[in-house]
Amino acid sequence: MQDSFGRTINYLRLSITDRCNLRCLYCMPATGITSQHHDNILRYDEMLRIVAAATTLGIRKVRITGGEPLVRKGVIGFLEQLAALEGIEEIALTTNGILLADYAEELYAAGVKRLNISLDSLKPDTFSDITRGGDLGRVLAGIGKAEQVGMKIKLNLVAMRGVNDHELLDFAALSIDKPWSVRFIEYMPTIREQQWQHRIISGADILALLNQHYQLNPLTADRFCGPARPYRIAGAAGTLGIITPMSEHFCGSCNRIRVTSMGQAKSCLMSNDAVDLRPLLGVRQQSKLIDALKMVICGKPEHHCLGSDPDSTTPFSMASIGG
User: What per-residue confidence (pLDDT) applies to 69?
Assistant: First the structure.
C-alpha cells in the first residue's frame, strides 16, 4: 500500500517488550524507565493478529524489536508462528547481543535470517560505560555464534562525539574481511540529554572521515532496505551504511510503520501521534484492525522535524517504542 505521498509501505517494526538488560546512555536516562505491567503488553496472539492484518495492506517484512526482544519468554515460539504467516517474506530481529549466543541456533531455525546488533564500541571499558555495565565479550560471542549458524549480520553504531568517535575507522574496517553491514547512525536526542547537541557527528563528517582512508563505492539499496545510504570499501566483503536522521532526513524513502509492545501504531518514530490498536484485537474485529492500520499508513507525515525543531516531539526512551 502507498501512503498519501506515494511511498510504498512494506515494512513493519514490531516491539515485543519494553524491558531491556542494558541501560544505554542514549536510549534511556540514568535513572532508568518504569517498565510496563505485564497486563499492558500485547500478548503474542494479539501481535500475530496485527501482523496478519498488516500483510493485507502489503507489509512483507517484519522486524522484531524491544527493549531487548530476547528477554521475553516464549519469543522463539512466537517467531515460528510469525514465519508461518502468509505474506511474510522476511523476518529480522534487532538485539543488543547479550543473549545472542544462547539463542542464535533457535532464532535461525525459527525463521530469523537477519540480525541488527547494537554495538557502540569495540573497547570493553567504553562499551561498559555506554551500556552502563554491559559485557562486550558476551556480545562478541553472540555475533560469532550467529555468524556460525548462517545469519546475516548488521552492526549498528550510534556515533557520539567524545564517546566513541575515535572508533569509527575500526568499525569500518570490520566490513573488509567480514560480510557484515556496518551502519553509522547519527545520535538522536530522544531523551534530551543535557548538551545533547555536542554529541552529534553528522553523516557528512563521518563520510568525509571514511573517504580519507578508504575508496568508497556507493551501492543501490534493495526494496526492504532501511534508511541507510550504502557503500562498500573497494574490495571489501561487507558494506557500510550511514543513517542521517538529524542532518539529512531520509523520510522521502521511508517504507515503514511501527507498533509498540503496548499496541500503539505509529507511522513515524518521531511523531507524537499514535493509534491504539488494543480495542480492535478481538477475533471478530479484523476488518476494523485493517482499517486502523490503513489510517496509520495514510496519515504518515511527509517528514519529521527532529533536526530543525527537536522540541516538537515529546522526549521518549527508545526502549519504550522500539527503535
Answer: 98
- Looking at the predicted structure, is the pLDDT value of residue 104 above 60? yes
The string of DSSP letters for 128-177 reads HHHHTS--HHHHHHHHHHHHHHT-EEEEEEEEBTTTTGGGHHHHHHHHHH
Report helix angle 136-149 to 100-110, nearest 10: 30
Residue type, 218: P
Q: Is 118 annotated to bind ligand?
A: yes
Within-domain flag for 145: yes
User: Does 251 count as an annotated binding residue?
Assistant: yes
The 10s digit of each residue's pLDDT in 223-252 is: 666 678 999 999 999 999 999 988 876 677
42-77: pLDDT as tens digits: 999 999 999 999 999 999 999 999 999 999 999 999
Residue 49 three-state SS:
helix
Is 314 annotated in a binding site? The answer is no
At 95, list the grid cell.
538485539
Tell me whether residue 114 is annotated as binding: no
207 falls within a domain: yes
CATH number at residue 231: 3.20.20.70
**8: which 3 cell numbers?**
510504498
Number of domains in the chain: 1
Residue 88 has pLDDT above 80, yes or no: yes
305 labelled ligand-binding: no
What residues make up the domain containing 288? Answer: 11-321
pLDDT greater than 80 at residue 178: yes
Say if residue 188 carries a ligand binding annotation.
yes
Residue 256 lies in a domain: yes
Q: Which of 111, 121, 139, 48 is nearest to 85 (CA)?
A: 48
11 assigned binding-site residue: no
27 is in an annotated binding site: yes
Any known ligand binding at 88?
no
Per the domain annotation, does 246 fall within a domain? yes
Q: Which helix (H) or strand (E) holds 321?
A: helix 318-321
Confirm whether pTM is higher than 0.85: yes
Residue 47 annotated as binding site:
no
Mean pLDDT of the chain: 90
